[in-house]
Design a protein that fits this description.
Keywords (chain A): Antiport, Cell membrane, Ion transport, Membrane, Transmembrane, Transmembrane helix, Transport
Oligomer: heterodimer
InterPro entries (chain A): CPA3_Na-H_Antiporter_A, MnhB, MrpA_C/MbhD, MrpA_C/MbhE, ND/Mrp_TM, Proton_antipo_N
Largest sheet of chain B: none
Protein name (chain A): Monovalent cation/H+ antiporter subunit A
Subcellular location (chain A): Cell membrane; Membrane
Strand content of chain B: under 5%
Radius of gyration of chain A: 41 Å
Number of strands of chain B: 0
Membrane topology (chain A): Multi-pass membrane protein
Distance between the termini of chain B: 46 Å
Number of helices of chain A: 40
Radius of gyration of chain B: 19 Å
Strand order of the largest sheet of chain A: 1-2
Helix content of chain B: 55-70%
């Protein structure tokens, strides 16, 4: 198998624990460990080649338009991190098998853990920055799930949320930085980016890119001022802390700094910002750790301190600092993971993590105590252990740097102080837990853990010793290759060994050790001193900020969105006014150059009717029936206007729609109060609405006038010229509808059908109270269906249908067509409903209007698709003149078929709407609901 | 004649918008319908006003602009569907919320319900 399977194998493994959860615990752990173990083997198989200086690249296209490819690289740095992730991950799986209790859902835990492992592998092996970011965010999400694993615990929920917020926000900053960087370099591929260091550093965006990347890295790696999430993440189960918060996730930020070292490092800003942040975090972490009574709290702050140390090293302007940083990444991961596991064992077997209670455990668990003591000695930097080597290198580099100019001597001094605190808290860990009297008030008697729970700790402590004693045989070659990947150019000379002779770093180590012992011996005074400061819990500040944000957002939302349609409509109108008014001021005169049409009496009468009708609608708007009648008057005049100004199709459509609309509104009126309650709106509201409405009216009128009087060059000439030759019809309006713009019409009848179905659905479950009296207390007429109306409308039906067929058939050449014919048929049928009642109709006409809409749409759609058979685009029309004996020459057009679709859709939609509404008050309504 | 036409369009839109800004659903639907008349007339007039020359070939010398007509024709039908939807929505709102007021603040008033 190829190396690029390394990130994929754990990804496949995510579901395995869920499948094997039902089996016993060991089987579940074993199957979970299988695929990561294979992945680790793959890395080891490739290791000789990597140590020989090779690096592997593999890439697949993903979304090339975005510069996103699925691209992996395996170089020294990626291999080193992969081994850490997979190796410690396997140990954590074993450890968690014994740590989790029977109550915990083990499959779910392993599932999250493996998801996290996949994400981490993705980060270190990505060769594409966007892909890297994707995995980066995946670590935030999976760590959220892991920290909050004990979700019944409030601390766990809060800690998880805090970690997600901080690292997620950092992730967004990183994304911005990545996009900016890619804009500068012109590629998202790391191969390209890493070789463009000079270009990036010269770019004017360098500072922005650096800032965004640093925010991303510092939030993830818990650097000041973002460090506070890490101690709260300790609410997670201890295997999670051992894995995420010591060895892997918090190292992701540092990995990012190391990965982009060739691109971003090397400037004054980098050195100052990165090193000072690291220095301060290191001091703060080391100091705070000493005062933590919680075992995991101490380790968390110690982690913050060590992360600060690594960041400081990456920020030093000496050549070997980066090598020391990578060395310390590994060493810290190993000893801190083992310490967390030891802390977990102590917690598990004694029931407490409070160092004021757990004392003198040496007697109860000597083996664990020995292991923990060796690991904390490594943390303190005692010779013959791995921590000592990297700490010596660290001291050497602090002496060699010159970041602060003449004040650079401060760095080694502060480093020694931090190291002294590090020794002090390591001492406290050993002395308070394993000695210092007897346990006080523990819930259970401590004892050694199960045999295999200790194995991971034993392995890690053995590595501490091996690396500490034989550095060059164990870690040397890999470290060299990883550093090579960071530098991107040949390495300077360096040597790792335990004994460099009597020199300044050794002296610093000695001073730190002595100082640490001194601090620990005087701890009483220090605790008293630290107790004088108020105890600030970042959790409360953070939760306060979050709640303030939520309150603020709610306030803004409620301020803008108060649920009043009146306000929304007003805002819409007001802003529309603001947008359309300014261009009008640029038009010099409203009247254009076209000569006007002379006025005549008919037009004046129509205008008076329209204005009077509109006005009457407003004035009598409280009497709903009268308002409706006035409205229909306006509608009628509008259709006459269409007829007068050479638009017979429009006039016919408007007239039939008018009838349907009025019937609909009359039906609806039955369910509404007949009078609108007298307006309670304030005079100011009245004036405001009047002003906005009038202004918009003026503007629309002006635009309309300007449009009519200015010469306009439109594309209509094309339709006039091609209607007969291209569409085979002389009624240009109809040809446009069914041929030239057939696709639009298709969309429109679809909307019509959807609206009708929506209305049907709205009506189906409506519960309305109906009344047997009108507003004035009069009963409705008993006589439901007048005989005269019933007889006349029945005899008119055939005539109606005949007319509609006629209108339909002539539509292509004379005013008419599918829309109008459909509306006429609908009116004919509605009239039957009105005159004879729903029950009468249901017995005689069993048309399912849903199917009718569907048939119409399918007919229109298939007509369109038919043109594909002839290799033409959708809805290309075809027509031919055919002559038959006796009938003569006539035209066959595919557009006619399309128009049939329109016809049926219109009938189906109109009748579905009106019939559904009409059936509401009858016994037929149940069937409406069922259909 | 253009001036009179424009005044009518402007007046209808103003009335429609004013009605739409009122507080009850039925008034709102009526306002919407009035506004859609105005908009249809407005769109129709963008091709100019022509008398006695429908866009049917071989029927006259110069033709009225067919494009706005085709657009308005579908607009009328869609406008009907929209009006229908709005009015049914208003009915449903009244059925579920017990009020036909649209400002979102007026609570259900059992007294007015009994009266109606």
């Amino acid at each position: 198998m190829d190396y690029f399977w390394v990130p994929f194998l754990p990804m496949l493994g995510i579901i395995i624990p869920l499948l094997t959860n039902k089996l016993n615990r060991s089987a579940c752990a074993l199957t979970t460990a299988l695929l990561p173990a294979v992945a680790l083997c793959l890395i080891f198989l490739d290791l000789p080649a990597i140590l020989a200086g090779e690096s592997f690249h593999k890439s697949f296209e993903w979304i090339p338009q975005l510069g996103l490819s699925l691209s992996f690289r395996l170089d020294g740095l990626a291999a080193l991190f992969s081994i850490l992730i997979l190796g410690i991950g396997l140990l954590v799986i074993l450890y968690a098998r014994y740590y989790l209790s029977a109550k915990d859902n083990m499959g779910r835990f392993y599932c999250y853990l493996i998801m996290f492992m996949t994400a981490m592998l993705g980060i270190v092996m990505s060769n594409n920055m966007l892909q890297l970011w994707f995995y980066w965010e995946l670590t935030s999400i999976s760590s959220f799930l892991l920290i909050g694993f004990w979700s019944y615990n409030s601390d766990a929920r809060k800690g998880a949320r805090m970690a997600l917020t901080i690292t997620g926000a950092g992730g967004l900053a990183l994304l911005a930085g990545i996009i900016l960087l890619a804009q500068v370099v012109g590629s998202y591929e790391l191969d390209v980016v890493l070789n463009s260091g000079e270009l990036v550093r010269q770019s004017p965006y360098y500072l922005a890119i650096l800032g965004l990347f640093l925010i991303g890295a510092f939030t993830k790696s818990a650097q000041f001022p973002f460090h506070f999430w890490l101690p709260h993440a300790m609410a997670a189960p201890t295997p999670v802390s051992a894995y995420l918060h010591s060895a892997t996730m918090v190292k992701a930020g540092i990995f990012l700094l190391a990965r982009f070292y060739p691109v971003l490092a090397g400037t004054e800003t980098w050195f100052v910002v990165v090193s000072l942040t690291g220095l301060f975090t290191m001091l703060l972490g080391a100091y705070t750790a000493l005062f933590k009574h919680d075992l995991k709290g101490l380790l968390a702050y110690s982690t913050i301190s060590h992360l600060g140390l690594i960041v400081l090293l990456l920020g030093l302007n000496t050549e070997l600092a980066a090598i020391a940083a990578i060395f310390h990444i590994m060493n810290h991961a190993v000893f801190k993971a083992s310490l967390f596991m030891a802390a977990g064992i102590i917690d598990h077997e004694s029931g407490s993590r409070d160092m004021r209670k757990i004392n003198g455990l040496w007697k109860y668990m000597p083996v664990t105590a020995t292991l923990a003591m060796v690991a904390s000695a490594a943390m303190a930097g005692v010779p013959l252990l791995n921590g000592f080597l990297s700490k010596e290198m660290f001291f050497t580099e602090t002496l060699a740097q010159s970041i602060l100019g003449s004040m650079s001597w401060l760095v080694p001094v502060l480093a020694t102080i931090a190291a002294a605190f590090s020794v002090a808290y390591s001492l406290r860990f050993i002395h308070d837990v394993f000695f210092n009297g007897e346990p006080k008030g523990l819930p259970k008697t401590p004892h050694e853990p199960p045999r295999y729970m200790r194995v991971p700790v034993e392995i890690l402590v053995a590595i501490c010793l091996l690396v500490g004693i034989f550095p060059n045989y164990t870690i040397g070659p890999l470290l060299e290759n990883a550093s090579l990947a960071v530098f991107n150019h040949p390495l300077p000379e360096y040597s790792i060994s335990i004994w460099h002779g009597f020199n300044l770093p050794l002296l610093m180590s000695g001073m730190a050790t002595l100082g640490g012992v001194g601090i620990y011996l005087n701890r009483k005074h220090l605790f008293k001193f630290a107790g004088m400061f108020p105890d600030i819990d970042a959790k409360f500040i953070f939760e306060g900020c979050i709640q303030a944000c939520v309150r603020w957002a709610q306030k803004v939302t409620n301020g803008l969105e108060n649920g009043s349609l009146q306000r929304y409509a007003f805002c819409l109108c007001f802003f529309a006014l603001l947008l359309i008014a300014p261009p009008l001021f640029e038009l010099e005169t409203t009247r254009g150059s076209l000569p006007g049409t002379p006025l005549n009496g008919a037009v004046i009468i129509a205008a008076v009717l329209i204005i009077a009708g509109s006005l009457a609608t407003i004035i009598w708007s409280h009497y709903r029936l009268i308002a409706l009648l006035m409205l229909s008057l306006v509608g009628l005049v509008v259709s006459i206007t269409f007829a007068y100004f050479s638009a017979p199709d429009l006039a016919l459509t408007q007239l039939s729609v008018e009838i349907v609309t009025v019937i609909l509104l009359l039906l609806a009126l039955y369910f509404f109060p007949q009078h609108t309650p007298t307006s309670k709106s304030r005079p100011s509201r009245f004036v405001r609405d009047l002003a906005v409405a009038s202004l918009i009216g003026c503007i629309i009128g002006s635009i309309s006038f300007a449009l009519m009087t200015h010469p306009l060059d439109s594309i209509s000439a094309f339709f006039l010229a091609n209607s007969k030759t291209g569409g085979g019809g002389t009624n240009v309006v109809n040809v446009i509808l069914v041929d030239f713009r057939g696709f639009d019409t298709f969309g429109e009848i679809t909307v019509l059908g959807i609206a009708a179905l929506g209305i049907h659905k709205l009506i189906a479950r409506m519960r309305l109270s109906t009344h047997n009296k009108d507003d004035d207390g009069r009963r409705w007429a008993k006589e439901k269906y007048p005989v005269l109306l019933s007889v006349v409308s029945q005899s008119l039906l055939p005539l109606f249908l005949l007319i509609s067929v006629y209108i339909f058939m002539r539509g292509h050449n004379l005013p008419g067509g599918g829309f109008i014919a459909g509306l006429i048929t609908s009116i004919a049928l509605i009239q039957q409903y009105l005159a004879n009642g729903v029950g009468w109709m249901v017995k005689r006409v069993s048309i399912n209007y849903h199917y009718m809409i569907a048939i119409g749409l399918i007919t229109a759609g298939l007509t369109g698709l038919g043109s594909w058979l002839f290799g033409r685009p959708f809805l290309t029309s075809w027509f031919e003149y055919v002559s038959l004996p006796w009938i003569g020459k006539f035209e066959l057009a595919s557009a006619l078929l399309f128009d049939i679709g329109v016809y049926f859709t219109v009938i189906g939609a109109t009748l579905l709407i009106l019939a559904s509404l009409g059936k509401l008050t009858t016994t037929e309504r149940l069937t409406v609901g069922e259909r | 004649m253009e001036l009179v036409y424009a005044i009518c369009v402007g007046f209808m839109s103003a009335c429609g918008i004013f009605l739409m800004l009122r507080g009850h659903t039925f008034t709102l639907v009526i306002g919407l319908t009035l506004l859609s008349y105005a908009v249809n007339l407005f769109l129709f007039a963008s091709g100019g006003l022509t008398i006695g020359a429908p866009a049917v070939l071989n029927s006259s010398e110069n033709y009225a602009d067919p494009l706005p007509q085709a657009l308005v024709l579908t607009a009328i039908v869609i406008g009907f569907a929209m009006t229908a939807f709005a009015v049914i929505l208003a009915m449903r709102g009244r059925a579920d919320l017990g009020s036909d007021h649209v400002d979102g603040t007026e609570a259900f008033d059992p007294l007015s319900e009994e009266k109606s």
